[in-house]
Design brief:
This protein has 152 residues and is α+β, with helices and mostly antiparallel strands. It has four helices and four strands, in the order H-E-E-E-H-H-H-E. Helix 1 (2-17) crosses helix 2, helix 2 (68-81) runs parallel beside helix 4 (123-141) and helix 3 packs antiparallel against helix 4.
């Protein structure tokens, strides 16, 4: 079990230190920002849709803002939803939320996202892990709107 925890910690640290899909997306269909006033985490998520498929997704945090869990979760999220359909991404958001809140559920198919399952033991960190996911849901909902969405 210790080896598995070390692997999960390694995945989280890797995605935190070298986030994937990091930086603004100039031709985004929509964007949404989120802020956690409890710890100060902040994130903006951009999506570019081609029909019903997420052709690209990117995120950014202000310099020096955002904990390792928040940044790693956003990076893992971007990797997981890139190229999926909107419906599949929304279903994944729900499954991920269940994982990090400790709700019983099937973790098959979550891949590297299971590394964040330990967050369920620390309720104060759930918001860190889900912040980018809430922003993604808002961006997908606002894809047809002309203005960005801010989630708190």
């Amino acid at each position: 079990m210790a080896d598995l925890r070390e692997l999960y910690q390694s995945v989280i640290l890797d995605h935190s230190r070298s986030p994937r899909h990091f930086g603004p997306l100039a031709d985004a269909s929509a964007e949404a920002s989120g802020h956690n006033p409890v710890c100060g985490d902040a994130v903006t998520v951009w999506v570019r849709l081609e029909g019903d498929r997420i052709a690209d997704v990117r995120f950014a945090t202000p310099p020096g803002v955002g904990c390792a869990i928040s940044r790693a979760s956003a990076s893992l999220m971007a990797v997981a939803v890139h190229g999926t359909t909107r419906g599949d991404a929304l279903a994944l958001i729900d499954r991920f939320h269940g994982l990090v809140t400790g709700a019983p559920g099937d973790t098959a198919g979550l891949g590297s996202l299971v590394a964040l399952g330990g967050v369920a033991r620390f309720p104060v960190r759930v918001k860190c892990a889900t912040l980018a996911w809430h922003a993604l849901r808002s961006a997908l909902a606002a894809a047809d709107a002309a203005t960005p969405v801010v989630v708190a």
